[in-house]
Amino acid sequence: MPLKSRFIITMLLTIWLLGTISFAQAQSEGASAGRAQIDSASASNTPGIQAATQDSIIVDAQGRVVVPPASDLAMKRYRSGNVLWVVDLLLGFLIPLVILFTGFSAWMRDTARKIGKKWFFLVAIYFILYTLVEYIIGFPLSYYEGFVREHAYGLSNQAFGKWFGDSIKELIIGLVVGALVIWLPYLLLKKAPKRWWLYTGIGAIPFIFFFLMISPIWIAPLFNDYGPMKDKALETKILNLADRAGIEGARVFEVNKSVDTKTVNAYVTGFAGSKRIVLWDTILQKLNPDEVLFVMGHEMAHYVMHHIIKTIFLTSLLIMAGLWVVHRTSGYFITRYQNRFGFDHLGDIASLPLLSVLFSLVMLFTTPVMNVYSRYLEHESDRFGLEITQNNFAGATAFVKLQSENLGNPRPGWFYKLMRSDHPPIGERVDFMNSYHPWKSGQPLKYGKLFKPISVAGSNTTQ
Ligand SMILES: [Zn+2]
User: 299 C-alpha to center of ligand 1: Å?
Assistant: First the structure.
């Protein structure tokens, strides 16, 4: 055993070292990007940002907004981002494989059994140990990606303490939530060894639904302050738009996200009494009121057209498919390597790294499908946002500003689009903003039935 544990420790240290080296290399690359950024960052940090960005908007002879090419810095971020994506992916497979093949997983299960005694606690404690080990090994890279790199590209003003505190909070939430749900597939593996993948997929629906519903209301406020919206005139316009879209009785929140990031976001979520419209303060700093209203029209489309629920059902189907593949293939690996793994059936919690590797592999192949579906929903939300606001110019300038503020690449390559784009490329979205206006020629609107027409907006005749 001493020899074996020495081997395990050596392997884990090697992985950690590799992570640290790739982190250090990436850091030096990020630091040079940071120097390049200083000029443009200091310009865009001044209060004159609105004027500065508006000046950069170019309109062609036909009145269409021109998509500016990606800046050198944006291209650098795009390319290094693709490399990091591959590194993340490989480590995501390598770490559980090492934990598995060194027998470390079986060792964690034995330790969990000593502490936990009862099956449920054994499963929960194993999950906590496994998650902590993954967190520690992945820490250098996540510190680089989440903190160092964002600062180097001028996309973050977050203090290290806030980043680290948030990271620990996320870890704790992940441990609590994971420890509460991990027993489900393993219990089903015991009780229904042939159909566990099917029941887990079905059982996942209420869990995903519950966490998606509670996370904006109970979890997100653990990270930031959710206050009332300061710009009351704009708040009234947003509520009018919501009323037209049939979203009544929603509260509007402004989040102090500027302490964390310079990127922008907004969303509509909740149901019944918890219905809420949330805007990061960054979006209010960077976009003018018309642009904010277009973005809100887009966000309301997701809500009105039940995109979250549709996505949950698709996700659940993919989980089922992924677990089915695990069900069909894991036996081969377990039979072949059971002496190294230290377990002889999938129902043993020590199989979690194997389950996770096989499952992630299937998810990797389904990513392009998920992305196509997500891009379709985003495109239709853009259409809804345009139809409800009928402001092509504001929609187009909003995207051009997002591109420059978020250092986006408006026309990414095929690989990026295939594996990483869950939104249409910004260039395509601007093209659509420039060209879609059926109301100008009196043609019917695709989503005209889902909202009240513009003329009703101010007068408030219904209600
Ligand atoms: Zn969207």
Answer: 6
Please give the structure tokens belonging to residue 437: 């206006």
Among residues 214, 219, 129, the alpha carbon closest in space to that of 169 is found at 219
Q: Which of 120, 154, 181 is the last residue of a domain?
A: 181
Domain range holding 151? 1-36+71-181
Answer whether residue 288 is part of any domain.
Answer: yes
The DSSP H or E segment spanning 70 is none
pLDDT band at 16 (very low <50, low <70, confident <90, very high): low
Alpha carbon 171 to chain centroid, angstroms: 16
pLDDT tens sequence across 210-238 = 887 788 888 888 999 999 999 999 999 99
**Residues designated as active site:** 299
pLDDT of residue 63: 86
Whether 170 and 282 share a structural domain: no
* Span from the CA of 302 to the centroid of ligand 1 (angstroms): 7
**Among 376, 397, 240, 395, which Cα is nearest to 307's?**
376
Q: What distance in angstroms lies between residue 250's CA and the mean position of ligand 1's atoms?
A: 19
104 C-alpha to ligand 1 centroid (Å): 42
> pLDDT digit string (tens) for 332-372?
999 999 999 999 999 999 999 999 999 999 999 999 999 99
Looking at the domain assignment, is residue 51 inside a domain? no
230 and 276 belong to one structural domain:
yes
